[in-house]
What does this fold into?
Amino acid sequence: MKIARMLLTAALAVILIMPLHAGSAYAQKGEAPLNNADIIKLSKLDLGNDIVIAKINQAKAVDFKLDIDSLSTLKRQGVSREVIAAMLKRSSPDLHASDAQSKTTGTVILKTDLEPEFEGAFCSLNSATGNINPLERQTSLIWTHQRAFGLGGSYTYYKFTGERSPIRFTEGQKIAFLVRAASQQQDPQTITQLFVCYIEDGDRRIQIDSGGFDSVSFKMHESLIAFDASKYGTSSFKITPKDQLKPGEYVFRGRNNKDWFCFGIDPKPSN
It folds into this structure.
């Protein structure tokens, strides 16, 4: 009788303990780090940014992949900028300390808007921080200069106000640029061109052609600067000059040959 009672007690104990172990396993499973797939699922539930961000902040651990390709995937899957920003912030454990430092030093620690805001706009890209800054924008028309009242021929050119762009880089500095495109299926070499300017009468210029009475010689190709281009983010291209740029003034051709985006290279300081 005692043996039967002991066996019954042991059986009941097993029955009672099993749900506890199951619950414990479930809890452990529920504590798996929050990842990109989880965020995409939550975003597709249309719960609103506040709820998804709260989930990100409350998670005991996260395992977010936030390289450029992953950010592009998140954006394509409908994850909002606000949620992506929260993911970036949660994945940077020292961000709060860095933010405190940035308030006193003015240093940009993190920027989540990685692309130019408007189609056709150009920005410089700091590859170390991800920070972007707009280039100087000018509108230029074609000008014509006649030599000796036209008897000596003429030439046409684009003119940009002022000898120097306010946007400056230093010779030897590693630089890159972003341009926002209508589609990343376009060939970036057809979207823009990069030119070096010459200075005349206090302005920056690009010569288009030079001609006499019976001939015209095109000159723009002589000012072209070769560059490499690759997809960046969801809507932009990253542009990097093939060779180190020499000191001078430079412009990117924008849409319709009217909007131009300017910057300058200063000589390397002498020791």
